[in-house]
Amino acid sequence: METEEQSEGLAFHPMDQFKIQPLFNDGPIHWYTITNATLWMAVVLLCVLALFVIGTRGRAIIPSRIQSVAELGYGFVHKMVEDVTGKDGLKFFPYVFTLFCFIVFSNFLGLIPGAFTTTSHIAVTGILAVAVFLTVTIVGFVKHGTHFLGLFWVKSAPLALRPILAVIEIISYFVRPVSHSIRLAGNMMAGHAVIKVFAAFAPLILISGIGIAVTPLSILAIVAMYALEILVAFIQAYVFTILTCVYLRDALHPGH
Amino acid sequence: MEIAAAAALGKFIGAGLACIGMGGSAMGVGNVAGNFLAGALRNPSAAAGQTATLFIGIAFAEALGIFSFLVALLLMFAV
């Protein structure tokens, strides 16, 4: 890696921003060490708390701005759960809304230059996805018992095809937490890394003549990627939440 | 020494090849979005109710592209 950086003149490595470092003193990282990931997760929690505590304090008929934002978010996720999962899925609404708030805030706070994106780590999104997977499996077995296994035995297919479909369904069921977590982490990581790659090209004007053409282009590209990342930050939180709803629907109504 | 160099070479070539998978995912996502738009322009009143399905379809198509990105990352940093 070192030789590549020198030959291309990259001032830093695009993956350096995802490094987990202890906040106070250098040393080995234990499970209790306060790192930059811990700091930014705490910031995310404080922001979510602040939004909903301040937002619901007034409870005015004509809402203030922050109350409107809190109500919009609540209504948005509530409608999503009701539409996708159905009326009986609404008892999972607090869980889904918690997931949505955590992911949307960590995605957006990660976009602040210099900030650390907690959702860019598979360790973080993996825990979220495995929690969803376990919830869905446990709910499915508690509500339907062994009938939940009917999810893998497609009744509408011809009998000869059913064993093959069962294998495919079982694989796709167990791949769910993998794709669920990697989708969020991969999107966050890739977008931030692309911004960093363009940022590494931006100071080229200081070292070589070709920079006169490259520097404005790369600054333009950073701005464009940043705008795209704002969109992606929201869409990925939305996708994670709606897939949670879809999986919950499978657990509550495994028949269809 | 030469074996290490060959391993590094294979790593970089493999990571580059893994990125071809992203092209397939791009076609998939484009297909989903294009077909949604084609359907939505025929019946705009039904389009609003199907945006959730659109995003689910995009997410499933995109997941496989993310897998190839993951393979590239594993080759670059883990192997």
Automatic annotation (TrEMBL), chain B:
Membrane is among the record's keywords: yes
SUPFAM superfamilies from the UniProt entry: F1F0 ATP synthase subunit C (SSF81333)
Gene Ontology cellular component terms for the protein in this record: plasma membrane; proton-transporting ATP synthase complex; proton-transporting two-sector ATPase complex, proton-transporting domain
Lipid bilayer topology: Multi-pass membrane protein
Keywords, sorted A to Z: ATP synthesis, Cell membrane, CF(0), Hydrogen ion transport, Ion transport, Lipid-binding, Membrane, Transmembrane, Transmembrane helix, Transport
Similarity comment: Belongs to the ATPase C chain family.
Gene name, Swiss-Prot/TrEMBL: atpE
Organism superkingdom: Bacteria
Compartment(s) of residence: Cell membrane; Membrane
Function (record text): Key component of the F(0) channel; it plays a direct role in translocation across the membrane. A homomeric c-ring of between 10-14 subunits forms the central stalk rotor element with the F(1) delta and epsilon subunits. F(1)F(0) ATP synthase produces ATP from ADP in the presence of a proton or sodium gradient. F-type ATPases consist of two structural domains, F(1) containing the extramembraneous catalytic core and F(0) containing the membrane proton channel, linked together by a central stalk and a peripheral stalk. During catalysis, ATP synthesis in the catalytic domain of F(1) is coupled via a rotary mechanism of the central stalk subunits to proton translocation.
Pfam families: ATP-synt_C (PF00137)
V-ATPase proteolipid subunit C-like domain segment(s): 13-75
Reversibly protonated during proton transport (site feature) positions: 62
Segments crossing the lipid bilayer: 12-34, 54-78
HAMAP family in the cross-refs: ATP_synth_c_bact
GO MF entry, a single one: proton-transporting ATP synthase activity, rotational mechanism
Protein name: ATP synthase subunit c
